[in-house]
Specification:
The structure holds two protein chains of two kinds. Chain A has two helices and six strands. By secondary structure, chain A is mainly beta. The longest helix of chain A has 6 residues. Chain B is α/β, with parallel strands linked by helices. The chains are: A mainly beta, B alpha/beta. The complex binds zinc ion (ZN).
Chain lengths: 145, 494
């Protein structure tokens, strides 16, 4: 368990980043998920310039892959169909993998959220889930927008 | 701003009501004179009864009458018009009909049996393709195959092709060449049943399908096998691309390789892992629906005997399922572009049909003034000018609303609460927020995916025997008109 995440919020549902960094929140660059990718799926200037830095990204929480997980996928628009519920449906290209500070309380797929975390670029395969991501937010916290 | 059709001097001279028109106070109205010109044109027009050499069937998946209206305004407004006065290319076709879309066992249809009806002349069972009415979903032992228009054309020495923006194994293109008890057997089927991608390669080997352009690379290679534009998903591990390589069928995978393909040889193009991009998100390296349509016609036209081409704008449907009118309309504009391109490439011996397989639960609010952005807020009707007043109309809750809303879907104003109940209210909206391409219009019933609707769709037709369309018809009639235009008319001419 991540201690800082535990301290941040008792309910774990919403609220912001750990209190230690709260004063710096206003300075976090905040963009919509679509501003990380160009149409050809290359990373935007915003993405490359903010690699390794804490950023705030607006998007939607896709229906989680499994219960009681700190992992979820952020989508640009509400993920109308769960790729795991529909036969052979695919994730869109322009998604963001989120590794939260603690087990996430699921927010409905069509409620806009802001996720704050450290931006990590490059292809990565999750050893546990097998999920392949091109961009991630690490050590993240999320709240309804 | 009016119907932009060619009107000859002869046609005007033939106008039966010219004398009547001159006496009326409205005779100088531009609306009145444009309608008079159209009347003259229709009086002078003759039906085209020559045998059809080629048939092109354009299907915008999910583009019912409402969605077509939305696309018309969207394109017109993009071109600087108010929008309502605009016409899509098929709006100007001389012949049209309303089409009933229900399936044998479904009031609300899906794209598989509807496309199947167009390609066989008989209604089919929900979620199945080109099987007789005894078919049982998901049970291939119940498969009683129907004969396909593509096979009839191929037997008669004609070429057959299709263009589709989803996977080439998706329901609408599959109805051109496959039979299946489950439309989701893209690359995987139970023991003893045949998946759809395999059937496409079988039909290319049999010489029935000459041109297949779309997405779905994943459906053609073994699980985890990297291919151009994607990764295989086939649990049987088969590499269908290797089979294709042995068939003298060209394989292309992006705009460049498509442009360079030999037009005289069969071709399969797999331009994306699953679905191709929405037009709004399309990278330059991926061909547009218009690029694919032009390439397909160039390929198929090398056969002097003629051809059958089906073109599907499949992602109009996907954007609507997502509750996102902007992408649906932008893909619809691309569909219109593809129709215009085709019209320029063919002549009077080509029957062109434009239709949809089904409608969605899209609706259009009132009372909006002229030129209200079809993806924006409903703006009030002005008392002193043609264009709207610039002031949003307010609902009883004191809040503005968009022109487009949906009956159900992800945009529902009823949001799931922590206790599992659903509640909510309409949020305040700004024009900037709702005209954003990613905006989801408000919907009523909460659902993860917006649904189809059973409402009639429209059909527009031009070319040989297009005049056989009219009134309200069942969807399967499309096959019968195509068949008569090609074969019936040919027999009669001999
Ligand atoms: Zn659909």
């Amino acid at each position: 368990m991540n201690r800082r995440g535990f301290l941040a919020t008792a309910s774990g549902a919403v609220l912001a980043a750990p209190f230690l960094t709260r004063t710096t929140l206003a300075a976090e660059p905040r963009v919509r998920l679509r501003e990380l990718y160009n149409n050809d799926m290359s990373f935007t200037e915003f993405a490359t310039e903010n690699e390794g830095i804490r950023v705030a990204i607006e998007g939607f929480m896709a229906p989680p892959l499994k219960a009681d997980s700190s992992f979820y996928v952020l989508t640009n628009r509400p993920m109308a169909v769960c790729p795991f519920c529909s036969d052979a449906a695919e994730w869109p290209n322009d998604i963001l993998a989120v590794y939260a500070q603690r087990v996430v309380n699921v927010i409905p797929f069509n409620v806009k959220i802001i996720t704050r975390g450290t931006l990590s670029l490059g292809t990565y395969t999750d050893p546990e889930l097998g999920f392949v991501s091109r961009v991630r937010l690490m050590d993240a916290v999320q709240e309804r927008a | 701003m009016f119907r932009r059709t060619f009107t000859s001097t002869l046609a005007v001279a033939l106008c039966a009501s010219t004398a009547m028109a001159q006496d009326l106070p409205q005779a100088n109205s531009e609306y009145f004179t444009a309608a008079q010109e159209l009347l003259a044109e229709r009086i002078a027009a003759e039906n085209n009864t020559r045998p059809a050499k080629n048939v092109i069937l354009f299907v915008a998946d999910g583009m019912g009458v409402g969605t077509n209206y939305g696309i018309r305004l969207f394109e017109g407004q993009q071109q600087g018009m108010l929008g309502e006065e605009h016409n899509l290319p098929h709006d100007l076709f001389r012949h049209s009909a309303l089409i009933k879309t229900y399936n044998i066992n479904a009031q609300t249809p899906d794209s598989a049996p509807t496309a199947g009806a167009m390609n066989t002349g008989a209604k089919q069972v929900f979620n199945t393709i080109n099987l007789d009415e005894t078919a049982v979903f998901d049970d291939c032992s119940s498969e009683q195959p129907l004969a396909l228009f593509s096979e009839m054309m191929s037997d008669a020495g004609r070429s057959v092709g299709f263009v589709a923006s989803p996977s080439v194994a998706h329901a609408t293109p599959a109805a051109v060449y496959a039979r299946t008890a489950n439309r989701n057997w893209f690359h995987d089927a139970p023991e003893g049943c045949r998946d759809i991608a395999t059937q496409l390669v079988d039909q290319m080997e049999a010489g029935v399908i000459d041109v297949a352009l779309g997405g779905g690379a994943r459906d053609f290679a073994g699980e985890g096998v990297a291919v151009e534009k994607g990764t295989g998903r086939r649990p049987d591990g088969q590499n269908l691309l290797e089979r294709i390589a042995g068939l003298d069928v060209q394989y292309v995978f992006d705009a460049e390789t498509l442009a360079a393909s030999d037009r005289s040889q069969p071709v399969i193009g797999l331009f994306a892992n699953a679905d191709m991009a929405y037009e709004h998100d399309r990278p330059d390296t991926e061909p547009s629906l218009t690029d694919m349509t032009i390439a397909a016609i160039e390929h198929l036209s090398t056969n002097e005997e003629g051809y059958y081409l089906m073109v599907e704008a499949g992602r109009v449907d996907h954007a609507l399922h997502g509750g996102n009118a902007y992408r649906a309309f932008e893909d619809g504009v691309q569909f219109a572009e593809a129709i215009r391109a085709a019209q320029e490439m063919v002549d009077e011996d080509t029957l062109i049909i434009v239709t949809a397989d089904h409608e969605h639960v899209i609706s259009f609010q009132g009372y909006c003034g002229r030129g209200s952005s079809v993806v924006g807020l409903c703006m009030d009707i002005s008392d002193d000018q043609i264009e709207h007043s610039g002031e949003p109309v307010l609902a009883a809750d004191g809040l503005p609303y968009t022109v487009v809303t949906f009956g159900n879907g992800a945009g529902s104003v009823l949001i799931e609460q922590e206790d599992g109940t659903y509640s909510g209210s309409r949020p305040e909206l700004t024009q900037e927020e709702v005209t954003d391409p990613d905006y989801l219009q408000q919907a009523l019933i909460p659902m993860t995916s917006e649904t189809h609707s059973g409402v009639d769709v429209a059909l527009w037709a031009t070319g040989p025997w297009a005049h056989l369309f009219g009134g309200t018809m069942d969807q399967e009639t499309i096959f019968h008109v195509m068949h008569h235009a090609v074969f019936g008319a040919q027999d009669a001419a001999q």
